[in-house]
Amino acid sequence: MKTSSSFSILFWVNLARTKNREASLYARITVNGKRAAISLNRKVLITDWDSDRNRVKGAG
User: Fold this and answer.
1) How far is CA 35 from CA 7, 15, 26, 43, in A?
2) 2 within a domain of the structure (yes/no)
3) CB hemisphere CA count around 49 (13 angstroms)
4) Looking at the domain assignment, is residue 1 inside a domain?
5) Residue/partner pairs of 51-56 with CB below 8 Å, 24 or more apart
6) How far is CA 36 from CA 1, 3, 9, 21, 48, in A?
7) Range of 24's domain?
8) Which pLDDT belongs to residue 31?
9) What does the alpha-carbon distance between residue 58 and residue 48 come to, in Å, rounded to a whole number?
10) Strand 34-45 to 22-31 pairing
11) How confident is the model at residue 2 (pLDDT cuts 50, 70, 90)?
12) Structurally, how many domains does the chain consist of?
């Protein structure tokens, strides 16, 4: 018997709730097509967010 499963994580900022040039950071976890979205209780500067790579810009 062969089983397969899928797993992915997506990070994004909620630009609709921007305050003082900071936006809330969220994560969506998908397992076998079922989604769960959670707030990470973190804020990032909008200018530091890389929307192409869905992550914060930084050294490294």
Assistant:
1) 10, 21, 13, 22
2) no
3) 19
4) no
5) 54/10, 54/11, 54/12, 55/11
6) 28, 22, 10, 27, 25
7) 7-56
8) 95
9) 8
10) antiparallel
11) confident
12) 1
